[in-house]
Design brief:
This protein is an alpha+beta fold. It is 39% helix and 27% strand. It has ten helices and 15 strands. α9 packs across α10.
Amino acid sequence: MCAAAEKGPPRSRFACRKHAVWSAKPACLDQAGCIHSGDGQPMTEQLAEHCQELLAHFLGRTRTAVAVLDREGTVTGANPALANLAGMPGDSFAGRRLEDIVAPSFREPFLEAIQEACLGARVEIRLSVLSLDGLLRPCALQIWPGEDSLLVLLEEECETDEEQAVTGAETPEAFQRHLSLELYRAARYHRPLAVVKCEVDGVEDLRAQYGDEVTGRLLAMIGWALRKHTRRTDVVARMSYSQFALLLPETDLIGAYVAAEKLSQTVRDVSVETALGHLHPTACFGVVAASDTGESTPQTLLEAADWVLSLARRGGPGGIEAAPSVAYRLAG
């Protein structure tokens, strides 16, 4: 992955600090994750102690996920927080590549960041980790270059826990962030991308007839059903009380329409028991596909999805409509 030139890239080291005081001498990691003096001079006992404390500090932290990579990107060491982040057993990372847990839409930027770090740069980017439970976990990533290894720090950015706990869906803000990144990737690499808006039919009537508790439980079940019946790489968000949005990477208009048909049946299969019997909801779906020319923006794509959803609602409960995003601009 990090093929060096004949003379090899200039060695880069990360400084170590203790109690917020930076050491005057640099240090670097070897392939086994041990820290050495990187300037060819013997490391003093005090500096070695400081460096080992730095590594132990990171490896022992519960919130920051830490991995030591060799220059091919293979994990040679990791702390328990990394396993927790990925939803994997603690000993699962030895000999694996860290990119395996990076969400597919972020793998190319991640690999580019590894390349830059191998050339001596300290890199900071944002990406999402795809855990085994199917959740996309936004993270801030730092890569510190060493002589023979890379030190990778992943800090999870928790902002959707409450909504995900209720419906399994992310917040509108998280959806906007994912949409911006996916639009950029779709335009850069000319890949298909679709957005689906879903609105549960007759929610106000349901609240009047069954009450807020039953209706809230019904919407939560719909959210979990949408999450369960979409791919791990898709994003499901709750945009308002009765409306959900789905982001479908690597999916064109036809594929997204087929997905909406299946999800429409998924919503119908949701059942809530009430005093008046079992309640089976329906929902309308509006499907749009982004332009791969870079003309689509998050705002225009969401507006187009709302417009197509309004067309679906005109056809009655359970309606499904689809259109390319350019159709919205032409209609407007």
